[in-house]
Design a protein that fits this description.
Blueprint lengths: L1 E5 L8 E7 L2 E6 L4 H12 L2 E2 L2 E6 L6 E6 L3 E2 L3 H10 L1 E2 L8 E3 L9 E3 L8
Parallel strand pairs: 5-8
Antiparallel strand pairs: 1-2, 2-3, 4-7, 5-6, 6-10, 9-10
Bound molecules: iron/sulfur cluster (SF4).
Iron/sulfur cluster binds next to helix 1.
């Protein structure tokens, strides 16, 4: 299988041509430096993403509170993470950066509020 990716490790944005066999890179072209190799390997073998979303709030001045993970999580876990986020009901005031969930989904990351929410007046 062949794949093309744009390396986002620096503004140069090299277009990487990757040949993949059994989930591993067997050939890589287009990278101008070794960072492109690392980027391609991570994207092919274990792509990670920071998850940004919002949780439902109850009794607060916002209906939804924006959240994000403090570290990237495996792309393959994004759906499960969204299902977990849908279950959360935030009913206490939060500050921006406050931890909403420790060890979110057992992935060793924290889910953080990215907005402040106060008690409804
Ligand atoms: S391969 Fe190297 S030079 Fe090219 S975009 Fe990635 S980091 Fe930048």
């Amino acid at each position: 299988m062949n794949k093309r990716l744009t390396c986002i490790e620096c503004p140069r944005g090299c277009v990487l041509s990757i040949e993949i066999e059994n989930g591993k890179i067997v050939s890589l072209k287009g990278n101008e430096c070794p960072k492109g190799e690392k980027y391609a390997a991570a994207e092919v073998e274990n792509p990670l993403r920071i998850l940004t979303s919002a949780v439902l709030a109850e009794g607060l001045d916002l209906k939804m509170v924006a959240v994000r993970t403090d570290k990237p999580i495996p792309k393959a876990k994004l759906f499960a993470a969204m299902e977990e986020i849908k279950k959360i009901r935030l009913s206490h005031p939060v500050r921006c950066g406050e931890v909403i969930a420790e060890n979110f989904l057992g992935l060793g990351v924290r889910l953080l509020a990215t907005r402040r929410a106060l008690k409804e007046s």
